[in-house]
């Protein structure tokens, strides 16, 4: 099938483009390149031997989306990765987050419906689940907007509501909501990976920067949680497993509207992730036990059985696979894509 990847030059988009090409689909990337580099197009070709044309543009702008269809359409599906996604930043910049994360969806759906797409696959998040008492989260777990702690998560839940209402009056459009847990890792080639600008908010890229000596020490945010080792538990999923989940959703999703958790269902603590990274590096890494970070949950992880049942997809890669591939990417690209 022919797929337009909005935000397709980003971390998850790039890995998904590779998985789609390797599964025999055609892909076109639409990206404003504010949080990535155009170099990924060449890296995708190096890995797959196939081309993923890159349209420089903003998914919220009708003219840019129309241009992608005019120049490279028609498309069977749009996969929508084009969002701002830093939880802490969203608290400081709510308007920018609601504007960007909703306008992109409005525009992509509007143009997509006019141009006859049959599938819209949305990059959602496990942070839409609002009640820790529901752990491990199934797709039916509580999702109460007012109980979510930040504009990022709220904007993603609002998107799900918009897409649900649109699909109800457009039965010709299949909508699939993919709720990611914690995507980490990099393609085993070491040619593509996560390349956050500035000092990383997230644990895995921060540990990688400490491992290469770009940052002095890891701050462990909180050692007094009600968890086995006192540090936060998360459901880390290898980005290649996540990408393969998108191929399964494109090929297997049922008509209508469906949501799927894309996670491993196996919670890993901060200290366990750091130990895994130390095994990959072959030495201990400097770490500081620090106070909890505002807004953090003690634990979040999913029950991924619905995706396995209905999409025939299951995350296969371990935390050691994730840290090994991040270390390989970080060593080969100490400054990310900007050589
Ligand atoms: C993980 C754990 C921290 C940094 C992310 C994304 C969000 C969403 C879900 C997609 C926590 C601890 C962190 C550090 C630490 N993704 N930590 N030291 O907060 O779960 O959210 O995944 O929707 O967009 O932000 O991920 O990597 O920031 O934190 O101890 O320097 O690591 O307390 O327990 P989080 P994270």
Short description:
This protein is an alpha/beta fold. The chain has helices spanning 11-22, 39-48, 62-72, 87-92, 94-114, 151-169, 203-211, 239-252, 270-281, 305-311, 319-332; strands at residues 2-6, 26-31, 54-56, 77-80, 119-125, 174-180, 182-184, 218-221, 233-234, 236-238, 257-262, 268-269, 287-290, 299-300.
Walkthrough of the structure:
This protein is an alpha/beta fold and 339 residues long. The protein has a domain at 2-185 and 236-263: NAD(P)-binding Rossmann-like Domain (Rossmann fold). The protein is 40% helix and 17% strand. It has eleven helices and 14 strands. The strands form four sheets. A seven-stranded parallel β-sheet has the order 3-2-1-4-5-6-11, with helices on both faces. The longest helix is centred in the N-terminal third of the chain and has 21 residues, at 94-114. The mean pLDDT is 96. Residues 85, 87, 125, 127, 180, 182, 201-203, 206, 219-222, 232, 234, 270, 293, 296 line the site of UDP-4-deoxy-4-formamido-beta-L-arabinopyranose. Belongs to the NAD(P)-dependent epimerase/dehydratase family. It catalyses: UDP-alpha-D-glucose = UDP-alpha-D-galactose. GO terms for molecular function: UDP-glucose 4-epimerase activity.
């Amino acid at each position: 099938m022919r797929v337009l990847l909005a935000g397709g030059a980003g971390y998850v988009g790039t890995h998904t483009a590779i998985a789609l090409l390797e599964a025999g689909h055609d892909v076109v990337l639409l990206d404003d390149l504010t949080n990535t580099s155009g170099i990924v197009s060449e890296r995708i070709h190096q890995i797959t031997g196939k081309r993923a044309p890159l349209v420089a543009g903003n998914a919220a702008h009708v003219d840019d989306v129309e241009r992608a269809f005019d120049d490279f359409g028609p498309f069977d599906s749009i996969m929508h990765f084009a969002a701002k996604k830093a939880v802490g930043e969203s608290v400081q910049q709510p308007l920018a987050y609601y504007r960007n994360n909703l306008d992109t969806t409005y525009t992509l759906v509007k143009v997509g419906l006019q141009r006859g797409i049959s599938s819209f696959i949305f990059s959602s998040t496990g942070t839409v689940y609002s009640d820790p008492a529901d752990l491990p989260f199934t797709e039916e777990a509580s999702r109460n907007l007012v109980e979510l702690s930040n504009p990022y998560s709220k904007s993603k839940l609002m998107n799900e509501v918009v897409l649900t209402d649109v699909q109800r009056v457009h039965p010709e459009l299949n909508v699939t909501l993919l709720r990611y847990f914690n995507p980490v890792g990099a393609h085993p080639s070491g040619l593509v990976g996560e390349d956050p600008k500035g000092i990383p908010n997230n644990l895995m890229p921060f540990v990688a920067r400490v491992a290469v000596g770009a940052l002095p020490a890891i701050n462990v945010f909180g050692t007094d949680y009600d968890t086995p080792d006192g540090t936060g538990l998360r459901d880390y999923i290898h980005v290649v497993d996540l990408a393969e989940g998108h191929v399964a959703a494109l090929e297997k999703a049922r008509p209508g509207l469906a949501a799927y958790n894309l996670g491993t269902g196996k919670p890993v603590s901060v200290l366990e992730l750091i130990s895994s990274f130390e095994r990959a590096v072959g030495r201990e890494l400097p770490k500081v036990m620090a106070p909890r970070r505002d807004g953090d949950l003690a634990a979040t992880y999913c029950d991924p059985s619905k995706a396995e049942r209905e999409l025939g997809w299951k995350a296969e890669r371990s935390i050691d696979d994730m840290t090994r591939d991040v270390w390989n990417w970080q060593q080969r690209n100490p400054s990310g894509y900007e050589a």
